[in-house]
Hydrolase
Amino acid sequence: MTQLIKNVLCFGDSNTWGLNCETGKRFDEHTRWTSLLNQQLGSEYKVIEAGQPNRTLVKNPPFSGALNGISYLKPYLAQHVVSTIVIALGTNDLKKRFDLSPVKIASGLASLITSIKHFYADAELPNIVLFGPLFISPQPPLRDIYLNCEDKLAPLNISFKHVANEHTLTYVDLSPLTTLLASDGIHLSSQGHKRLSEIVTAVIYSL
């Protein structure tokens, strides 16, 4: 009997894409968490890497908008039979120029979840795993771009947890990864990617 592969869609921003802030390029498949996740889950799973730098929840709705020519979420869902969707967004919404409250950012997340549920109205809903916000600590020159974002992180974490509870979804609190951020205080270091892959592997196995 042919083994049914379980597709895991990882939909996020630059930390899902695997940005190495030291080089400005992408971590390789031996480093970024999505690739490590694929290796750790084994042959029964296939990880679809759908990260895009600068992707947001509110200003560029990820279900019905586009960003830099990269496909948004809906085509991924239409193209693949997905068993689990991992959503890792919210950091870019903290930028000063957007001037968004934690509640407003969380409402963008809730809208995304609602859109996903509507898409699967006549089919089985995949498992949905929500990442909480990384507790970033932006360093110069990014500090001004994310001015006062630290004040929003704890409330945003609470608001994201509320969305997860309201929709009965699995929530992954990323606040412990603060010590594994790279030198810019926003992106994960290689050690952070490794640790995150281990966390998500355990979560997916538990579903």
In short: The mean pLDDT is 93. DSSP finds six helices and seven strands in the chain.
